[in-house]
Amino acid sequence: MSDLSEMEPDTFFRRVIVELSGGDNMAGRQYKLVPPYKMRKLVLCSGQIFYDLYHARAARKVDDVMLVRIEQLAPFPFDRIAAVLSKYPNASWCWAQQEPKNMGAWSFVHPRLKTAVKKLCPEMADKHFEYVGRSVAASPATGLFRVHQEESKQILDQVFKY
């Protein structure tokens, strides 16, 4: 989804991409979001689910949910995550993924997110990350497209619920 100009000389890889900031390839399509202090939820994710979340948020006309992409999982960008969390002090936090809970990035990022908060944002140490994704499963996919669509809708509903 990146434009070729984003890979020219004097450009660099962004470990974390916050909407409306550098590296956001959707910035030109963005509609207005509430200011950071009014943001209701901060959704961290990695990979393709960002685009599903982005389009679902636009379709639902939600303006108080910020999407943050973690583009580099290892080494984990503790400093970047802490800086993002600090900008949205009133928002609840969640991690969203399409994979089952025992697969995907959740089991890797969850302890690191907790460490980033504990060490770099101690004033927020009482806040927790909600997991939004498929339940634990033996297989990464259901095998039935209809069930996959239902599970995907449930993920989006949970992310954007009030």
Q: Which class of secondary structure composition applies to the elements?
A: alpha/beta
What spatial order of strands do you see in the largest sheet?
1-3-2-4-5
Strand tally is 5
What's the rounded overall pLDDT mean?
90
Q: How much strand?
A: 15-25%
Q: Could you name the CATH topology?
A: Rossmann fold
Give the SSE string. Answer: EEHEHEHEH
CATH architectural type: 3-Layer(aba) Sandwich
> First CA to last CA: what distance?
30 Å
Please tell me what the overall shape is: globular
User: Given this structure, which CATH class is correct?
Assistant: Alpha Beta
How many independent structural domains?
A: 1
Largest sheet: 5 strands, mixed
CA-based gyration radius: 16 Å
CATH superfamily: Multifunctional 2-oxoglutarate metabolism enzyme, C-terminal domain
Q: What share of the residues lie within helices?
A: 25-40%
Number of helices: 4
Low-confidence stretches: none
Throw out a few tags for this protein.
4 helices, alpha/beta, five-stranded mixed beta sheet, 162 residues
Description:
The structure is a single chain. The protein has a single domain, classed as Rossmann fold. The two termini are 30 Å apart. It has four helices and five strands, in the order ββαβαβαβα. The protein is α/β, with parallel strands linked by helices and 162 residues long.
Any chance you could write out the topology, listing elements then pairs?
Blueprint: E1 16-18, E2 41-45, H1 49-60, E3 65-70, H2 78-87, E4 92-100, H3 106-120, E5 129-134, H4 145-160
Parallel strand pairs: 2-3, 2-4, 4-5
Antiparallel strand pairs: 1-3
